Amino acid sequence: MRKIAFGYSTRCNIRCSHCVAAEDTPDNAKMELGRAKEIIRDMAAADVTGISFTAGEPFIYFDDLVELVTLCRQLNIYTRIVTNSYWAKTPEETNLRLNALKQCGLSQLRISYSRWHQQHVPQQNVLNSARGSKIAGIDYFVSFVTDFSEKDDTYEQFLRDHELIFFPEPVIYAGRANAFGRKTIFTDYQGNRCAMNPYLAPDLTMYACCDAGSHFNTTNFFNLGNLNSCSVDQLFTKNETSALYNCIRSMGITNIASFAGIKARKIVTYRKCELCEKLFNSPDTLRSLQKAANTELQRWVR
Ligand code: SF4
Ligand code: SF4
User: Fold this and answer.
1) pLDDT tens digits for 178-201?
2) Average pLDDT of span 32-36
3) What is the residue range of 108's domain?
4) CATH code where residue 72 lies
5) Which-ligand-closest: CA of 13?
């Protein structure tokens, strides 16, 4: 199934200190509305069935968003919007916006929430947008970004007290969060398979990964190409037929690290995206993995 994180604009009304989206790219880049519509039509023709509007804060361009979601519905594309809820100041304002989005066919709202977001947006807004989604008949969930420290206990309790649907998501130490101090970890020896959702940036570059991988600038391993010179179908096909990407999806990053000669006791000290960076943002390691991707790597057993 083809689906994509659609970065219509990187502009955001707040500046979270953990933001993975912000790094070296201009933080106010935006697609032309007409071009975005053309791309969505091309995506439908290329059998894309799900679009998640993300990057900066999509509600900043609310009228454009309404047009894009409407178009997706006409083309039978499932839609999600990722938002920080800054706009959900009162139940009335919230219902107005969410009813409009429901009318034009929005399928799901993903509400970003964390101790970093909530330095800028009151918790009440999160509650308003979750409750407003229910009222409007839009599926929702709260994406609770956490470093799993005790500092987040009260934030989690707030979600529990109000019986909101939430998923804890680990901070990704990329973008601004790269500067964070981090605890040493020892994980289980788990596969670390990754679904690798593709991401389209406002400059029309498409990446095979919508998180830390789009920042692997030494090798640009996840950069698939640009829609100014390639078609949607070509870039998706590249994403789906890369032997090494398919190893990440099927055998997992841990197995690839083991193949690359990294000892098990070292592997368990890496977070998933950091292990990914170690393997694929190093030109030498990447070169040897690419060479092996169709042969020994696929046959690798510990
Ligand atoms: S994490 Fe989301 S809400 Fe926060 S600055 Fe980044 S894009 Fe904006
Ligand atoms: S593990 Fe790699 S491919 Fe998956 S989200 Fe992290 S950086 Fe991207």
Assistant:
1) 888 888 888 888 889 999 999 999
2) 97
3) 2-183
4) 3.20.20.70
5) 1
Going by pLDDT thresholds of 50, 70 and 90, the confidence category of residue 24 is: low
Of ligand 2's listed atoms, the one at least distance from the Cα of 275 is: 1
How many domains does one find in the chain?
2
Task: Decide: helix, strand or coil at residue 3.
Answer: strand
Tokens of 285: 């390691």
Among candidates 26, 64, 52, which has minimal Cα distance to 210?
52
Does residue 285 carry a pLDDT above 90? yes
Q: Say what the pLDDT of residue 176 is.
A: 84
- Please say whether the beta carbons of 110 and 143 come within 8 A: yes
Residues 267 and 179 in one domain: no
CA distances in angstroms from 211 to 6, 16, 65, 66, 227, listed in the order given: 13, 16, 22, 25, 20
Q: Is 145 in the pocket of ligand 1 (CB under 6 A)?
A: no
Closest CA to 209 of 272, 270, 293, 257: 272
Q: Does the pLDDT of residue 69 top 70, yes or no?
A: yes
Give the pLDDT mean for 239-256: 95
Hey, what are 146's tokens? 């956490």
CB atoms within 10 A of CB 55: 27
CA of 119 to the centre of ligand 1 (A): 12
In contact, 206 and 224? CB cutoff 8 Å: yes
Whether 272 lines ligand 2, by a CB cut-off of 6 Å, is: yes
Which amino acid is present at 112? S
